[in-house]
Design brief:
This protein is an alpha/beta fold. The chain folds into 2 domains: 54 residues, no CATH class; 236 residues, TIM Barrel (Alpha-Beta Barrel).
Length: 333
């Protein structure tokens, strides 16, 4: 994929989101930058295959009536048929460098109790988590190149491969952020592909640190992650001074990767109102240390999407009161 092809994708996706003062008026604009995956390395796809094509609405998954969102995009971020628990979206996260064994055991116990999608920990705790969560459906996720993304592709691949060998089934890698800002897209693709190839069978999430990127850079980074074989794109580490996830960034990422990849919102998602806004924008996972609070507010039982995605402001009062807020002393992730 060359720079002009990436530019075409980025400009078209951003244009669609800005149309009519940022609202997608026409249901036929449920489109994604398709065609960017499946091309052999080193063989650019034709521009026609990379352009954003209208989606065949007749083949789209059924949509819940989530009228508060206004004009709706394809609900690719979650299976629209059937109810979902809020816990199904949560990567229960503890990445503080000072986390102790006791902290990690508590994290795993909470994940088992609430049946979260995954725990997300630093590499040194992977083996402990794998043992604690054996026999459950809770995945063990670890990180590589964290939190700067500035190590080499070989170093990231080695770190990710070791995490998988110790029991991780998911890896959240930090992309080469300086190369993204510098427009070195071939390097970014090679960086992601090195981790994907080193973790065959594991799910790879690519952290692009969206708060430091322009809309065009968010789209390009997401498209390149998709091309390199990643399974998710993720907004943030939660450690960058520029900030964490925003609904606008999630929406851009979802529109770019379409129905093929997951989108994980992380960084600053501490209450139900924010989590619901991220899910409504297209997030299929939420990286947070506040998942227990989310379950306490929204309940442990499955809810229809229409119920789960009620207007986030409906939960704002309880969130402000502390019912859904990050516990005192909790981590800023």
């Amino acid at each position: 994929m060359n720079d002009s092809e990436l530019d075409a994708i980025a400009l078209e996706v951003v244009r669609r989101l800005k149309e009519a003062s940022g609202q997608l008026r026409d249901a036929k604009l449920r489109a994604v930058a398709r065609g960017a995956v499946g091309q052999p390395a080193g063989r650019p796809a034709p521009v026609s295959a990379l352009s954003v094509q209208p989606l065949d609405v007749s083949r789209a998954r059924p949509l819940e009536d989530i009228s508060w969102r206004g004009p709706r995009m394809l609900a690719a971020w979650t299976p629209a048929a059937g109810a979902r628990r809020v816990a199904d979206f949560v990567d229960h996260t503890l990445l503080k460098p000072e986390a102790t064994r006791k902290d990690i055991l508590k994290l795993c116990a909470e994940a088992r109790e609430h049946r979260f999608a995954a725990v997300c920990v630093n590499p040194g705790w992977v083996e402990l988590c794998a043992g604690e969560l054996a026999g459950t459906d809770v995945a063990v996720a670890s990180v590589c190149g964290f939190p700067l993304g500035a190590t080499t592709p070989r170093a990231k691949a080695s770190e990710a491969g070791e995490a998988v060998s110790r029991g991780a089934t998911e890896v959240d890698m930090v992309a080469a952020l300086g190369r993204i800002k510098g427009g070195e897209w071939a390097y970014v693709e090679d960086d992601v592909r090195a981790v994907v190839e080193a973790t065959r069978g594991a799910l790879v999430k690519v952290i692009i640190e969206s708060a430091i990127l322009t809309p065009e850079e968010i789209v390009k980074a997401s498209a390149v992650a998709k091309l390199a074989g990643a399974h998710f794109v993720k907004t943030s580490t939660g450690f960058h001074a520029a900030g964490g996830a925003t609904a606008d960034a999630v929406r851009l990422m979802r529109l770019t990767v379409g129905d093929d990849l997951g989108v994980k919102a992380a960084g600053g998602v501490r209450d139900c109102a924010t989590a619901l806004a991220m899910i409504g924008a297209g997030a299929s996972r939420i990286g947070t240390s506040s998942g227990v609070s989310f379950v306490g507010c929204l309940g442990p039982e499955p809810l229809s999407l229409a119920e789960l995605l009620k207007q986030p402001e409906a939960h704002a009062a309880s969130c402000r009161s502390g019912t859904c807020a990050v516990p005192a002393g909790g981590q800023p992730y």
